[in-house]
Amino acid sequence: MFEIKNVSKKYNGEFALNNISFTMGKGLNFIVGASGSGKTTLLKILSGMEQDFDGEAYYCGKSIKELTSNEKSYYYNNMFGFVWQDFNLLEDVSVLDNVLLPQYLKNKQNRKKAETILIDLNIVDLAQQKVKYLSGGQKQRVAIARELMKNPQVIIADEPTSALDEKTSKTTMDILKAISKTRTVIVVTHDTNLIDNNSNVLNLDKGELIASPQEKIVTKTENLTFNESHRLSIKNAFALTKLNVKSKFGRFFVSTLALMVAGILCLTTISGAIGGSSQGEFDKLIDTYGEGLKDISVVGSFISAGGTSGNKEEKPKADVTQDIAGLYDKYAGDKRIDFTAFLQAFENIKVKVSGKEYTVKSTGGTPSINKLVAGKMPSGKDYEVVVPESFVETLGISNEQAIGKEVNFSSSMYNWNTGKPVLKDAFLTATIVGVADTTVYYESQGKMTSYKVSDSFFFNKAALDDMRKQAEIKSSNMNFLIRAKTPADMISIKDELNETGIVPLGRFELVEDIVRLNKQTTEQSGSASVLIGMLSVVMVIAIFLITGLMRKREFAIYKISGFHNAHLSLLNLTEMITGAITAILLMLVTSPLINLATQGLFKASILNSKMLLTGALLIALIAVVAYFTTMITFMKTNATTALKTGDR
């Protein structure tokens, strides 16, 4: 079966094998010699694990040197069996599952054959026992049983008895002798007591052959047939994944947890939770000062009161008059604002609804709005009005019920045509289109105080034009407010108005601090987001790289059982799919706790309904990174190195 011609192999300039030639057929064959004589090197060449050598080596006429990786894996799954001195079994897997390992590359696992082999080797009662709990002799029988499941033509045993006691060694050799009656059995050993007169012996000394078996007629088959199935189906890959998860649940849990944590960290970066601290601070101010904090008041005239910080010397006192005509129309459709509203003050207000008249107490100030609680702001050509929520409460109906009701509104308005205020009456009928919370918040002696403005009625331009005409007001300037969407929008609009010579009113100093904080936070959070994203990916790479390195022995066992890199890639894929799905489910289950954590850290809940899908996609992407990381480790795994087979 084997034909070796003038084979030499050097390590570091010294011969491990020096120009040896022999043939080897069926039966029990021993390779003996002292440590460093070249026994293990020859074994590696015969098995195809070592293909870089001088000379020629053939198995059934097939050049071992020219075997492809696919052909080698086929040989290891169907033709060559390996028995090692330290057994090389999957320790956390049962005896039966170890024996069935080569069968995952078949269309169907032959459990009956496995049980028969276990009966023949007298270990069937250990079938469900984990290998790590077995004695050395029992482990060696399991290793032999696994190789017999391949129905191999050749059994290669590397020091199979060196880790066993004398009695167990004899039992192991008896099994190998029995196997050699129908197969080629090659035993590498330094113990010559194992050899009997019927065995063929190759004696090596310092890389040279000093004794060899008698020449045998070796049948050469130029083209070996590959009849057996040799593929890992998706079904079997998931079955093997299930076995691995069950046997190494701790490893699986850590890997899954790493995927979930990395996914959440990446989600934190893209969701803007880290950069949301300034928005959180602004939300606190809104809770304190109300939605009116975002208001910009544009007025035709006002009396300056110096600075707004309490320093009366900050600005000189002066009356300010400014032309604001056309500004309302300019900002009415601006994308940066929530709404605009005219600030018309009224006196002597009486409102008739459904035939009943109500008197509204006048405050003498301009109307104020905290937020719209129902309906919309007034617009269009028909006469429309937004009324205070306190007025609706007086009507004894809900805010929604008030929408659409007609009101007869009569009041007095100040006419300043002569330079002095003169009250003029005005009247109209309008439709209620909105209800507003008119609460005003202000700070007094370090404490926040609030009150509701009962006379805050907001009319659309058409209605106000009619009432101002009735009051004989000639000025086209109508004071109005702009409700900005964000602090940045508020400051942007304020700056625009200043550039055109208009001085708006608002809590700009307070808001500008938030905008400045937001700019700084955005810059810092951008760097932090990149760093966190990189660290999360590095964490996953490190964990899966370490896990892969810890699995090198496991990968090597797969390889000597006939698995090549394509098989391991599919197994890796099914493991990652299982891990990613589990990580996503774990994220969904723990999302309330995760939200509590991110709320405490970043003042934001990242796992809302919109972000869950994004989180799942991120975990899937990170699993791809983990897949390629693990792939690197098993592709770089050398079976002989990982299994530590001898020195030379």
TrEMBL record:
Annotated PROSITE patterns: ABC_TRANSPORTER_1 (PS00211), ABC_TRANSPORTER_2 (PS50893)
Gene3D superfamilies documented for this protein: P-loop containing nucleotide triphosphate hydrolases
UniProt keywords, alphabetically: ATP-binding, Membrane, Nucleotide-binding, Transmembrane, Transmembrane helix, Transport
Transmembrane is among the record's keywords: yes
GO molecular function terms noted in the UniProt entry: ATP binding
SUPFAM superfamilies per record: P-loop containing nucleoside triphosphate hydrolases
Transmembrane parts of this sequence: 252-274, 528-549, 570-591, 611-634
Residues of the ABC transporter domain: 2-231
InterPro entries listed in its UniProt record: AAA+_ATPase, ABC_transporter-like_ATP-bd, ABC_transporter-like_CS, MacB-like_ATP-bd, P-loop_NTPase
UniProt family annotation: Belongs to the ABC transporter superfamily.
Protein's UniProt name: ATP-binding cassette domain-containing protein
Organism: Paenibacillus phytorum
